[in-house]
């Protein structure tokens, strides 16, 4: 076992000689992962950053004790937050990713030759460096020249921007700590202003099972700004409840392409998944209509 910096935080612990990570950020649910090795562990200016090698999910990015992405299922989330909006905006040339420090969303966006610029604004440089070096299954050690890394607060970055981007992808962690402001109505208003007249945004909007209140609030905030709003879902095993949601807000009507142009090297998204992901279970459809 190797790691850098100070002693490991309490959520990484030994149990009968075995190393475990226990997510304990929820009052009524704890999830534990058996760990092979601590690859990287250091505090940043914003949070504690770890790359752990687990038995079932391979290497994983862990921020303040909460799993963010893994080698086994990280592609699901990253493909869904990029390919779905980019299929709905086939003329997009300027893209912005807010968050996304694991580089997975930028890696997927870079598969589109039509994108001329891909700006990625991540507040924590240490997350990007750790993932590029130690989590290549997710980051792909991204080095596309169109991807511009900007180490800044995403909330502050979009303030004052007007009509710059075709697509904005908000790849935030849970709405606590540094990411909390990424779920505010003021932030979404700035995102709306930063989009061109044909622009659309997408954000991850949490678990429909455990965070339905956050999802409904996000949906309402976006609907107040954008005339066209859709929610879609995917199954991401390491996220609480498995089912995860994404919310799209668009300034123009959303036209589904007769034929998708999804890259042929995806692992999760294909034409059928793209078309069915907007079919919501009844409880969720009803909740959004309230």
From TrEMBL:
Q: Which residues form the PABS domain?
A: 18-251
Would the keyword Transferase turn up in this protein's UniProt record? yes
**Where are the active-site residues found?**
171 (proton acceptor)
Q: Which Pfam families match?
A: Spermine_synt_N, Spermine_synth
GO biological process, alphabetically ordered: spermidine biosynthetic process
Per UniProt, S-methyl-5'-thioadenosine binds at 47, 122, 153-154, 178
Which UniProt keyword terms apply here? Polyamine biosynthesis, Spermidine biosynthesis, Transferase
Q: Tell me the residue numbers annotated for binding spermidine.
A: 102, 171-174
Function of the protein: Catalyzes the irreversible transfer of a propylamine group from the amino donor S-adenosylmethioninamine (decarboxy-AdoMet) to putrescine (1,4-diaminobutane) to yield spermidine.
Q: Under which name does UniProt file this protein?
A: Polyamine aminopropyltransferase
Organism listed in the record: Geobacillus thermodenitrificans (strain NG80-2)
